[in-house]
Amino acid sequence: MSGCSFLDLRALVLSRQPLPTPVKPLLSVKTEPRMILRTPAPKRARPIEPAPIIESPPVGSDHRQLAIYEDPSSAGPARREPSQQSEHMLCTYQCRQMVKADFLDALSNAEKQVQDYQSKLAELNDNFGKADEERKTFREKLSYVEQELAAAKGREQALHDQLLKEVNDSHERLKKELELSAKLQAKLENEQNLRKKAESTAAAAEDKAKELEAKLGHISKSIEKEKKRFNNELAQLNRDSKFSITKITVDLEKMEFRAKSSEQEVELLRKQQEDLQSKFSECLHQKSELEKRLTSLSFEDDSPKESDILVKHLQEELRNYESEVREARKLKSAHDSIELMKEKLLEEKSRRERVELQLPKLQEYELKINKLEDELSAWKLMIQDIPGVSCCDDVPLRISALQKEVIDNLKKLGEVNAHLKQMQVVLDKTQLDKQKTETEAALAKEKADRLEAEVKRMNLMLSAVSEERNMLKIAIEDFKSKNEQAGGHASSSALQELESSLLKREPYIKELEGDLFAQKDINTRQQDEIKSLHDRLNSEARKVKSLERESDRLRSEIFLLESKLGHGDFSAANTKVLRMVNTLAVGNDAKQTIEALQSELQRTKEKLQALEEYKSQSGNSGKLVDSYMSGKVAQLKEQIATLEKREERYKTVFADRISVFRRACCELFGYKIVMDERQRPNGIPVTRFTLQSIYAMNDDEKLEFEYESGNTNIVENGYTSTSEISQQVDIFVRKMNSIPAFTANLTVESFNRRTLS
Amino acid sequence: MASKTAAKDIITLRGSAAIVSEFFGYAANSILYNRAVYPEESFARVKKYGLPMLLTKDEGVKSFISNLNAQLSEWLEAGKLQRVVLVIMSMNTGEVLERWNFSIETDNEVVEKGVSREKSDKEIMREIQAIMRQIASSITYLPCLDEQCVFDVLAYTDTDVAVPFTWMESSDAKLIANPQMVKLHSFDTKIHKVNTLVSYKNDEEESDDEE
């Protein structure tokens, strides 16, 4: 309001022309020149001397001023001509009258103006009083503003200090974080390089392993193909064998038929032989009778010639019969030999047929063998291509070595993962620090924004105050000038005071402005720093994201490694795999093989018996089958023998070891231990141990213990129920629950007894 | 041996080795029964870990497992045992069908300095009980073994371990290609921590092959 009133006063002051100068009656005042010529003066040469020209304002104008016309002729009366003097006197009187009227009008006007000016003065005085009041208010406001300025200065300084502290802290943190991030980056780079190297080696090893696996797959496929081929060949051989078996059976049947026929022939021959033998016996009998008769007749000698002839005839018949018998025998042997030859011929024919049948197969087998040899050579070449492998047996070793390398590389990867985990922990910490700095930066931003707003407000205030000051100055100057014209000295001192106070404030205002500019600079610097921090934070956030992705990848790899570890993979550098000699499986296998072999033995025995029967009847017809079966039987018998030897060896080794162990236990602990397996009535198996001290006086001094599922309990008997022993049992076993202490005490006591005795 | 005269919570190296080897004996018996490697009638019922456990009556298997346990406890006391694997294979083809993996983590400080640890026996028994229950319930997800099977035991030890007379070094770890794996519970005596895992042949491959 004071401003408005001041402005209104100003407007009033400015709207008016500058205060008219006080009117001096009848005095020439050089103001705005307006020539009013009453009578046109003759055109004469004006004198060089400056003549005062007095002009009067036109009638009705505000800017009236009294102008007295002075005839230029009056200035130089000596110059006028006497002829015009009378006219001139009339004119001057009229003019003077007119001038008087005008003068009077002007006076009235001037009086009116004076009144107006006086009123205006009063108004101005009022206004001046108001301006004084306003000045006072402004002074108060100025003081208030000064106080506010001082408070704002103080706040600014405090904020400035805080900002400086925060900026320093954030600088330090940023430096630390930058150092940490630089270190982490260096570590990351190192570990990335290590990981890349490990990945490259692992990839190379994997490629090698894949190649080897592919080769192994090819080899296994080819092996399977060969197996199939061999199986097919075996099937074919089986078919051939079956075919040969059928042939053999057919031959056997033929042989049987022949055997039957030969048996019939043999029976016939036997009958013939019997007949012949009977005949021969009859002949012999007749011969003996005849000889008897001859001997009897020899005494008579009546007809020696007839008996001799008879004898001769009989002898001849005998000889004939004998020759016939010999011929029959020869025939029989020849017949047998013929049959044998026939059989041999048949066998050879059958062999020839088989050979002829198998000849094309031989060619096929030869082709197959050539193919197999080619494939073997190809495999050998492949094995030669594989580095570090010289033969087929080296392939699995090489694969195991490569697997171990892969496992080592995976271990290294695991170590890298551990480092990365540590890195993740550090990154998490940096993230937290980053978040903290971000929040602090946001807070600092907010504070800076607030400070800027306050600074702006202060600037606005200052600009307003300076404008008011300027306006006041102008108003004061105008007022001064007016007062100087009006002769008001009372307010000059106040104005001077105002001016002096304003002058005093100016340096403060300048200082404030300087401080504001400095703070503006500081704020701009801080904003720049905050922007740079934000950029760094964004870059770190990107790095953190990339690290998180890598950590996810590594976690998946870790999961795969853990699955492999759980699978059973191991490193040969740190671990070796031991396997207990599993006699159970061997025993089981041996038992089963023995059972199978025994069943086969029985079958072959039955077959052999049948064949032997056929053989006994037909001779050598079953030689082929015998040879095949005998070979199998021999093989099976050999296997049984080896397995039985192995079992016996295991048993002897175990027995030896057990006996050594028992002797050692006896000598070390002083007790002979006998172990029995018993069964309780409830079916639970229990192991009973009977201990006899080597220092025992009697055989009755025995301790019995029962062992069941990890628990050992003493069994009462005659020896333990004695007073001495029962005391010791109570103390050592029942109270202190220590059987070794009991047995040790017992041995010491029995040793002492022995030594003393 | 866990001292019974003093507080029950003290566990020594020897006691822990005994607990682990005993656990393996009972676990092996349970697996052989549940997977029908041996017929049911060859097993006898006993009480252990608060559960009815089955132990084989076959003398050969019994002696095999007892010798095995003795050797395992020796290696455990020396801190040389890393893993024990029970492998179930087909008798006819020799193909590995299942692998029961018991990995062991040993506190080397106890082995080197001979200090003891403290843990409640009840808690250890509870943990072992949980594993035994899981072994018994594994038949619900493991594929059926339709053919006759045999078992074998592998021990993963440190390289400086002397190979005993009844053991031999094997280069074949009897692994399964592309197995399915199921992780079971673990138990910890504060000296030895045993993690159990069973890996078996993926039955889907067989069904895919058949299709």
CA-CA gap between termini of chain A: 137 Å
| Ends apart, CA distance between termini of chain B | 56 Å
User: What is the oligomeric state here?
Assistant: heterodimer
Identify low-pLDDT runs of chain B: 1-7, 205-211
Distinct helical segment count of chain A: 10
The largest beta-sheet of chain B arranges its strands as 7-4-5-10-9
Shape of chain B: globular
- How many helices of chain B? The count is 5
Major β-sheet of chain B, in short? Answer: 5 strands, antiparallel
- Determine the most extensive contact between two protein chains: A-B, 34 and 50 residues
GO biological process, one term (chain A): mitotic spindle assembly checkpoint signaling
Family (chain A): Belongs to the MAD1 family.
Main location (chain A): nucleus
GO cellular component, one term (chain A): kinetochore
How would you describe this structure to a colleague?
- The complex is a heterodimer of chains A (757) and B (211).
- Chain A has ten helices and five strands.
- Chain A is mainly alpha-helical and 757 residues long.
- Chain A has a four-stranded antiparallel sheet with strand order 2-3-4-5.
- Chain A starts with a helix and ends with a helix.
- Chain B is α+β, with helices and mostly antiparallel strands.
- In chain B, helix 1 (13-34) packs antiparallel against helix 2 (59-78).
- Mean pLDDT of chain B is 88; it is low at 1-7 and 205-211.
- Strand 1 of chain A pairs antiparallel with strand 7 (149-158) of chain B, so a sheet runs across the interface.
- Chain B: Belongs to the MAD2 family.
- Chain B: Keywords: Cell cycle, Cell division, Mitosis, Nucleus.
- Chain B: One of its GO terms (cellular component) is kinetochore.
- Chain B: It is found in: Nucleus.
